[in-house]
User: Fold these one by one.
Assistant:
Number 1:
Amino acid sequence: MPLTSRRFPWLAWLAVASAAVARPAAATESDVDAVKVRCVKAYEQAQWLRKQSRLTAAKNELRTCMAEACPALVARDCVVWMREVEAQVATVIVSARTPEGRDRSDVRVAIDGREVQARLTGASIEVDPGEHVFRYAPAGAPPREERVIVNAGEKNRLLRVLVPSDAIPRDRPGARPPEARRYRAVPIVLGSAAVVLAGAGIFLDIQGSTDLHGLRTGCAPACSPSDVQAARTKIILGDSLIASSLIAGGAAVWLWLRAPRVVPTADGARLTWSGSW
């Protein structure tokens, strides 16, 4: 540890006094004092911030006390400490993707309530060691938070975030938003059922009519009542199925024309019944 560490803070102030004496006469005493005092304050503050593991703030103070205008004794220690702090400070990279695997850059990032990126660029973010709350706010979607424990010296740690698909791709100028489409699954099912019912009804109707015709030409008027009733039942059932097919077919046509629209949104999609004839 350098001699001008916390054990010997008076050496830093001695360096200030020595530099002030050696300053050329052209500089005023107040200028010398202001610069040197600022250097020593930054020197002491950097040591305190390092002890608190606030490394990113310590770097700012070290940049001040390692300047050429600072006493050589102070600047030399600050240069050494800067190398140590840069090795200890961690960095993370935030990457956002949609469920389809598409990258999104329109995501704001905040750490412990302080915004650090207004838009994702792939650049690394310096973070102090310890536990932090990361907040990701995609454009057009609710923000989400997660707690992350960052280790000292960890470099370029990748934080992947799953965000909703963007309804209007903002990364492509002039891109059109996806158009709403109609949800027609129900009318398709009803239409298919109508076809099946109509086919079954026509089959039974024809079979019942054929059976009745055979009874009239073969055994009338001495035909078995049960045979006559069975033929008539086929006709009645066939007519019922045909009537049901007409109802299902009408409902399918109505729903086809009035089908709800699927409107894309930032967090998925929603149905609207805004159709018209």
Note: Residues 181-272 form one domain.
Number 2:
Amino acid sequence: MKRFSAQHDLTFPYVIDRTQDVARAYGAQCTPDFFGFNSKDELQYRGRLDASRTKPVPNARRDLYEAMTQVADTGHGPKEQFPSMGCSIKWKHYVASLKDRGPTNKLMKITVQLGDGSVAVRA
């Protein structure tokens, strides 16, 4: 991914989620499942890439692109959002210690290694 990112001059961060902690924390259901945040790390978009489903649709509405353009311009995502459609996530066996979980048995804090090698922690 580092080589691909450099070759294509990608300037945005990405997550390598080897443990699936990030997917679990955000409630991801399928691949791809897109999550878009504003500059305050507030979730503003969760949904599909575009109006295509299993096959490309000519001139399909570009939901993710339009949503993130709106987030960049206003800080807020669109009111109307469409869920992702794709293959279900094949969950790895997962065990976390009780100290990592809150009263609802959900992870309270996750640590992930970003594609550039840095580490991010989200509560």
Note: Strands lie at 15-16, 30-31, 34-37, 43-47, 87-88, 110-114, 119-122.
